[in-house]
Amino acid sequence: MGGAELENLIGLFSRLPGLGPRSARRIVLKLLREKEHGLMPLADALRAAASSVRTCTVCGNLDSSDPCAICAEPLRELRICVVENVADLWALERAHVYRGKYHILGGTLSALSGRGPQDLAVAPLLKRLEEGGIEEIILALPATVEGAATAHYLTERLRRFSVLISRLAQGVPIGGAIEILDEGTLATALRGRT
Amino acid sequence: MGGAELENLIGLFSRLPGLGPRSARRIVLKLLREKEHGLMPLADALRAAASSVRTCTVCGNLDSSDPCAICAEPLRELRICVVENVADLWALERAHVYRGKYHILGGTLSALSGRGPQDLAVAPLLKRLEEGGIEEIILALPATVEGAATAHYLTERLRRFSVLISRLAQGVPIGGAIEILDEGTLATALRGRT
């Protein structure tokens, strides 16, 4: 029904995060209804992104320039915020609350998944610190067991540099209802009360 | 953040049905992580679909051949199931319960949206009937006021052909809980009890 090209296209869409066969069909039908304004621009944008977007060799961000626009910005503060992935970097940039640099770790340490320090961008981070000029490292890692283990490991490795090491505060999220919070968050929020 | 190409790509994805900025970012990051197995095949599939998929000049279905595979199938029964759009045709084909032909109307009559008979594929449907050989027309239009008005209009226009005209049965959907059904469905199901 619809030919091999259509079925292939629907199959590819249905494997994207958050999509399934039903939403993929809906998207493909809409794209085909608007070939000139929907389908072709998306195909072109995918190709443009594929050829232009690369991983920043300094911080690991995705950008059409290398070093990325953030690393190339001269007025960024002399701090490095260590995040797990690009999505976390983007979330912090969207919040407009941080004006320093970043470092993407590419994951967290995980005994379960067999991810050790050599699988993360730890060496490039140490290299950036050896080059000097950095005053603070903010560990913005997920508030999970693995995130905490990774932060602990990095703190040990960074100890030899004269750099301030901090972590994000933990507690009740803004707008978060107390009743739906897990015990861990509540305990942390209570302990850290101000 | 990420350059113009990335922002453009995220913008295009976020305008697709069912997606927003957050899901679009998640999809684009996943595609970029797997350029060779994610991004490029999708760009290629979009181009392939754009160049190969066309609207069947007989029934209005989307397919890489014209007439579409369904219209070209010699063993289809001499019935035409009239549906609003391609998604409805696909849903009926997936159900494997109908072995006839189709006709896509391209919408329903709507005084509110100013959609008259000339905006729908009514004339091509009449032409197919004039060519003869069709024994039944099944009006599989949405169970809405506009769907009913369209079915009523088509019934009038098809009266001059010696063809059986039927509609889909209405009632409680399989697996549907009685308590969540609207009054209209309940009334229809009660009236049509068997």
Descriptors:
two-stranded antiparallel ribbon; alpha/beta; 2 domains; 194 residues; Dna Topoisomerase Vi A Subunit, Chain: A, domain 2; 6 strands; globular; 4-stranded parallel sheet; Helicase, Ruva Protein, domain 3; homodimer
Q: What this model shows, in words?
A:
- 2 copies of one chain form a homodimer.
- The first copy, chain A, is of the alpha/beta class and 194 residues long.
- The first copy, chain A, folds into 2 domains: 4-52, Helicase, Ruva Protein, domain 3; 62-167, Dna Topoisomerase Vi A Subunit, Chain: A, domain 2.
- Helices cover 46% and strands 11% of the residues of chain A.
- Chain A is built from 8 helices and 6 strands.
- The first copy, chain A, has a 4-stranded parallel beta sheet. Chain A has a two-stranded antiparallel ribbon with strand order 1-2.
- In chain A, helix 7 (145-158) links the parallel strand 5 (136-140) and strand 6.
- The longest helix of chain A is centred in the first third of the chain and has 18 residues, at 35-52.
- Chain A is globular and about 60 Å long.
- The termini of chain A are far apart.
- The mean pLDDT of chain A is 91.
- At the A-B interface, helix 1, helix 2, helix 3, strand 2 and helix 5 of A face helix 1, helix 2, helix 3, strand 2 and helix 5 of B.
Give the arrangement of secondary structure elements.
The structure is a homodimer of 194-residue chains.
Chain A lengths: L2 H12 L6 H13 L1 H18 L1 E2 L6 E2 L5 H4 L6 E5 L2 H10 L5 E4 L17 H9 L5 E5 L4 H14 L5 E4 L15 H9 L3
Parallel strand pairs in A: 3-4, 3-5, 5-6
Antiparallel strand pairs in A: 1-2
Helix pairs in contact in A: 1-2, 2-3
